[in-house]
Task: inverse folding
């Protein structure tokens, strides 16, 4: 019998002074049984950093043809493809061919650093690929904020993000 996804509800308030974006979103996330709290919270962080009313969560882990998040224009063309983790070179090339912009949010400490070094050649050949690294401590601290029902606020300023659940605050300095 296959395990089912766990559903999480998140009320998210975003204050992004870098983009002049201020909004609230009611989100429903399906966490695949193989997905960790850390990965799910990095997906939420990516949502906050690119928030838009058309930004959607993809099937991600359970479907190789969809990213963690994506933004499509009104014609269905993919404007933004967001990956979380350490996708392989083939997947990145495919994403870069399908989308106007591709962003990767890598996390996991030494594994993320090693992956980034290996993927440098792809990153330098593709002009529409951006890679940001989440420090290990920040990813682990965000994972502790994960609850089935979350009320989170994201404050983005000068490339830094403060994530708060009202009790605890995590500073994420993107690399």
Result:
């Amino acid at each position: 019998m296959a395990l089912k996804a766990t559903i999480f509800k998140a009320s998210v308030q975003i204050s992004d002074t870098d983009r002049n974006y201020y909004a609230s979103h009611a989100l429903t996330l399906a966490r695949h049984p193989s997905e960790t709290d850390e990965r799910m919270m990095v997906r939420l962080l990516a949502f906050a950093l690119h928030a838009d009313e058309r930004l959607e969560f993809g099937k991600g882990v359970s479907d190789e043809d969809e990213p963690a998040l994506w933004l499509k224009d009104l014609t269905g063309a993919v404007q933004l493809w967001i990956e979380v983790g350490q996708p392989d070179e083939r997947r990145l090339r495919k994403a870069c061919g399908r989308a106007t912009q591709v962003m990767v949010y890598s996390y996991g400490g030494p594994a993320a650093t090693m992956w980034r070094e290996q993927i440098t050649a792809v990153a330098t050949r593709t002009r529409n690929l951006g890679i940001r690294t989440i420090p290990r401590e920040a990813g682990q601290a965000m994972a502790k904020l994960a609850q089935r029902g979350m009320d989170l606020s994201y404050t983005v300023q000068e490339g830094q993000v403060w994530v708060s659940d009202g009790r605890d605050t995590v500073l994420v300095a993107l690399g």
